[in-house]
Amino acid sequence: MSRPGRATKVSRKNGLFKVTFVAMGSPCELLVDCEREADANALADIVSTEAWRIEDKFSRYLPDNIVHRINNSEGKSTSVDDETANLLDFAAELYEMSERRFDITSGALREVWNFDGSDKIPTGQDVRRILKRVGWEKASWQRPELAIAAGMQIDLGGIAKEYAVDKAAGLAAAETNAACLVNFGGDLVANGAPSGTDGWQVGIDAINRSQGTAQKLIRLKNGGLATSGDARRFLLKDGIRYSHILDPTTGWPVADAPRSITIAADTCTQAGMLATLAMLKGKDAESFLEDQDCQSWCLR
Amino acid sequence: MSRKNSKSVTATLTTATCALLGTTATTPVNAQEEDTWEFDTALLYYAEDNDRVQDISFKMLAYRNFVDDRVLSMSLGVDSLTGATPIGAITFDGPQTFTSPSGGQVRTVPANEIPLDGSFLDTRVALAANWQQPLGRLSAFNAGVSASKEYDYLHLGANFKLSRDFNNRNTTASLGLAFSSDELDPVGGAPMPLTPMLDVDDLSNRMGDQSKDIIDIVLGVSQIINRNLVVQLNYSYSSSDGYLNDPYKIVSLVDPVTGDPVPRIPTPGVEGPSHEYIFEGRPGERTKHSVYGQAKYYMNGKVLDASYRFMTDDWGIDSHTVDLRYRWPFGGQSYLEPHFRYYTQAHADFYRTSLDSSQALPLHASADYRLGEFDAFTVGLKYGRKLDSGNEWSARVELYSADGSMPADLLIGNQGGREIYPDTDAIIAQFSYSFGW
Q1: Cis preceding-peptide flag for B115 (omega within 30 of 0)
Q2: What pLDDT score does A228 carry?
Q3: Which of residues 25-84 of B touch A (CB under 8 A)?
Q4: Domain ranges of chain A
């Protein structure tokens, strides 16, 4: 808890303890169905500490962490710890599963693609220049040694938040049998239903109506729920289809992707990765999801 | 090993996730989608100056959102109208006496005042229900019914709409149909068009209930141009048939030289109109065509919404409407939305300020100010705020001002210097609250 702004706020609402804090650039929330405030405080510590630990370790914006060392290795090999190695193995699997579209080295594309609402479209030349520094196949990964060329970068941001939700929820479940909901910026895991209910009510933006979007209500008792896309952002609410997801095989945004995809799965990580993989399918997102054994909600 | 041919990645992903999280047995996911309710409510106050129309209305829209994207919406509206409206007789520098709509008494309007009908109090109740459901992945179907009732008026309607997405959902085309059947039962009976306003208790030119039918067809296309711009284009056709008169509107018969109403002497011993007035007479059919274009431009959360409508009908009324709204979000949960609207219309072919008493009556005539030539401006500001609960409230204040202009060829005799057209200024205030669960 060394960084400024790192504090948890605990309040009681409708018979539940609500813990809020900020991590990984997102508002984070923990809801606990327990009697004693001390138990809620203990869980607040466990969950927030884990979120901040993962942020500190894997954020590409922070200096002196493993990602920073890899990105500044100037082509030299870096030896990584077990947890990082597990994430890199996972990223390598996703790279293959997605036919090279889920690529943790694609972050460099953001140097030319600026999704700040302006209309600056890079030239084909700009994109091709950046693509020379993109591609997991250019990296050498032999657990525990990773080497990437000078100028290449890795970014675990596409995995870390969902991973953090699962890790934090796992630690919470090990600590208590009380029902709780871990929610990091809309990606969440439920450990059991609060007493007297059959699940946590979660609202997702999912109904397309002429006046705009409305919420759908999901009752989550166990498992993970994750959303990919920008449904919560106003600019995208009324019918803008351009995706903010870049396809590293072309260097351009995925065309005709849904506005948002929400998935329910056993873990938040599974849900989040399926949502991202579906997003990368563009107009075929729905048919891809039909082939998966999962509950999904697509907003076009 | 190539997984390209394997459609499902679920098994591979499950294995990889277990390896990452170091867990083998988690509780399987248990998620269930639920039906939801949403409510939009609004309280609106509308007031014209000079004690003309005042309307206090309450509206409630309830949505039942079913799993699988089916939506049932139901609306209830209650209006309480009070005040008075111009009846069409011209202003004159002497008092004017009129028989009341019921034909049972007289009312006298002082010199130099715009003749209004007696103050009325009317309550309108409107109900509507609409069902929306997807047809396959790209199409949607809508069907609805509506009814409204006020003291002398009953409306019944039905509507259908079909829409379909094309072009990777960047284009949506829709076809809408609406039918309505309205019944009028005016106080004292509907007057026969272009017949004189008679003495008290003389109902010889009154008819029974009247009705009109309206068919509307709307063809629409909406197109996403790029990530900032969405445009919508509609063509509408509307055909009305039946009794299209306002049964309470009259036209003054005037002297061709002075332009003053022609005096009239009621039957001895009976009260009646002081001057010659005839009930208005409109055509029994009306066909409207309109084209509507809208562009919404999104800039970092700000939205500029601009629209234009052109309407033309076989009564000779052409109108143009320009509407601009700019939504400016601030502070995360609030927004301000200035609104500007300009409306202009040409008068109906049969619109007359009054009729020359020395000439034969025309086939159709009306002095209803709503069929005259006028420009109207609306300026307003709305403030909205989203609450932590997800509910939202907003407040809006608008000013409306309509100014008529009277073409010289419609003025008779020395009417040029007088205020013939009743201008309207109004204030609109609304409070809305949306909530759901």
Answers
A1: no
A2: 87
A3: 26-36, 38, 63, 65, 69, 71
A4: 1-60+157-197, 66-155, 205-214+229-300
